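Recall that a protein's primary structure is simply its ordered list of amino acids. Everything else, from secondary elements to tertiary packing, is in principle encoded there. The following example makes that idea concrete.
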Amino acid sequence: QVQLVESGGGLVQAGGSLRLSCVASGSFFSADVMGWYRQAPGKQRESVAGITRGGSPNYADSVKDRFAISRDNAKNTVYLQMNSLKPEDTAVYYCTVKVWQRGSLNNYWGQGTQVTVSS
């Protein structure tokens, strides 16, 4: 099994910053694509950012130029630096990781961390 533990969420004023972290542990060969999704109340879960093992990032248009995703392959950890936060960024943020296990690529989710941005 694979466990994803997220941290770094909280309450921040508009214009502020937060840094989310997600550590993957358990039985797997290596972590492939890592990323972050979010889900606001009453809305569908949406992709925020993703990053390949080689470090190539992609972002939702709504967070480009404000958020930065990075990873540390040695620590199986992915980060999301969130700057210039807006009230509309308020959501539960979920980490997701694809890992190689016995020749198969399997996807796992974290439990989520709440980010609340006050106006």
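The CA atoms of residues 32 and 53 lie 5 Å apart. The chain has a mean pLDDT of 96.
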